[in-house]
Design goal:
mainly alpha, 2% strand, 3 strands
């Protein structure tokens, strides 16, 4: 078995246990736990399956250019069946139609415009739509809730507060991002293959060091000028659900955030932005800084605003040279672990 496939299977097994076992702290509302766990795991599979190159190739080969519509139909069906326990069969049928239509729109746009496999400004609209999906009526439900976990960054979209929510909007949004950018619009310059290549380890160490130092410095800098609202650079779980919080932060948040801000935004903006006024090197640095600002504004899982900016900028500066997503993900997780340990002593 390929290492990437093994990693994906292990992650899915961990998530299956975390969602299905009440002791991990996730509460379930309206939908039976077995249904929410089963269908939620299926949607997570639609995210992680694209991370294994062999599975990615098989999916694209089997479904062809219409794979996006297949995802839209299946995702809408699965999520509506789960919600039928709460809203009834008639309302679930309407949800299915509504969700299938909206999830199909990005793929219909790409197919209609016959976009080449290169970044296009409309792709960033799809990325924004996917992350804001929990705000769209019909996608705003919540299957799982983890209370009192504090800062959840991008994963707070549509809910807010200090609770972590997983529902049809967020899970379908994650699956939409991977299906669109790895399948229908596979232009990302940083495909995730979970295989360390030459110099990946060195780049990961550099990203970790710069990201960790940058997070601490930026956190205290914002606090010094009166812009830092959080007392600690990283949120430490205080409840019995701490392990579920850590699992979420280590095996989903770094992958989703780095795919968004490095694999799509940093890789894409640098290719569609005009370079007539600046040399490539300067425009690449400007892009890295812009992406770090966007990352901090959107929020990073578990981190204060300043720490999110510093971590993102540190990783982005090294990413300019490597354009490899795996070192960025490993560095993101490692830096958060170091920040957590440091928060216990400082």
């Amino acid at each position: 078995m390929k290492p990437s496939a093994l990693v994906a299977i292990i992650i899915l097994l961990i998530w299956g246990a975390v969602l299905a076992i009440p002791a991990f702290g996730w509460s379930v509302h309206d939908v039976p736990r077995w249904a929410a766990a089963l269908f939620g795991l299926w949607l997570l599979l639609n995210f992680y399956a694209w991370m294994a190159p062999t599975w990615r190739t098989q999916i694209v080969t089997a479904r062809g250019p219409l794979l996006g519509f297949g995802f839209a139909f299946a995702g809408a069906l699965i999520s509506s069946v789960a919600d039928a326990f709460a809203v009834g069969i008639a309302s679930a049928l309407l949800l299915f139609l509504w969700r299938a239509i909206l999830l199909s729109l990005p793929f219909a746009l790409a197919l209609n415009r016959r976009l080449r496999p290169y970044p296009h400004w409309s792709d960033f609209g799809v990325l924004l739509f996917a992350w804001l999906l929990p705000l769209v009526p019909g996608f705003d439900g919540s299957w799982f809730v983890l209370e009192g976990v504090g800062r959840v960054g991008l994963f707070a979209v549509g809910f807010g507060g200090d609770a972590l929510h997983l529902g049809p909007g967020r899970l379908l949004g994650l699956a939409l991002i991977s299906t669109y950018f790895y399948g229908a619009r596979a232009w990302t310059a940083a495909p995730l293959d979970w295989m360390l290549r030459e110099k990946d380890a060195i780049f990961a160490v550099r990203m970790t060091v710069l990201g960790t130092v940058g997070a601490i410095v930026a956190h205290y800098t914002l606090d010094w000028v009166g812009l830092g609202a959080q007392s600690s650079w990283i949120q430490m779980p205080q409840s019995s659900a701490g392990w579920a919080f850590v699992a979420f932060g280590l095996i989903l948040a770094p992958v989703a955030e780095e795919l968004t801000f490095r694999g799509i935004l940093q890789s894409g903006i640098s290719k569609v932005a005009p370079r007539s006024l600046l040399a490539w090197k300067h425009s690449a640095l400007a892009t890295a800084a812009l992406v770090a600002v966007l990352h901090a504004a959107a929020g990073s899982f578990g981190l204060s605003t300043g720490a999110a900016f510093g971590l993102s900028l540190g990783i982005a500066l090294v990413y300019i040279r490597t354009n490899r997503l795996l070192p960025a993900i490993l560095a993101h997780g490692a830096a958060c672990a170091i920040l957590a340990i440091a928060a216990l002593w400082i």
